[in-house]
Amino acid sequence: MIHLTVLMALLAVTHIFCLAVMTERKYSLKKTLTVYTVFGVVFVGLAVGTVALFGDRTAQAGIAAFSSSVFVAFFVFILTSADPFWKKLFLFLSYVNLFCIFFSISAFLCGELFS
Hey, which of 57, 89, 92, 108 has its CA 20 to 30 A from 98? Predict the structure, then answer.
């Protein structure tokens, strides 16, 4: 479980960095960092909680963790960005698509190289 927590924390930091780069800040730096810190804690908590609830080898755990983290990330992005809604939506959907592509490539490579 500790490996999952560290991995999710690193992934949360990566997401936070990417979301911060995509936005024009609506709030002060301190308030934005507070929102992103809470998001990181919730992100890690959702992942660890769904694995604890469903087990680490089930598809339901992966789907629940991924869906809940995307849902929370979307609302954090909407909350912290000063851009118009349609621009926010386009940027976030583009980011999620790119993340899914990288995830699929890494899953394929790991499956081929480390079977």
Answer: 57
Q: How far apart are CA 46 and CA 42, in angstroms?
A: 6
Give residue 46's domain range: 2-113
Q: Structure pTM?
A: 0.76
Structure tokens of 101? Answer: 């592509």
Domain count, the chain: 1
Mean pLDDT across the stretch 78-83? 88
Whether 20 and 36 have beta carbons less than 8 Å apart is answered as yes
For residue 22, give the nearest of 97, 78, 104, 105 by alpha carbon: 78
Residue 26 pLDDT grade (very low, low, confident, very high; cuts 50, 70, 90): confident
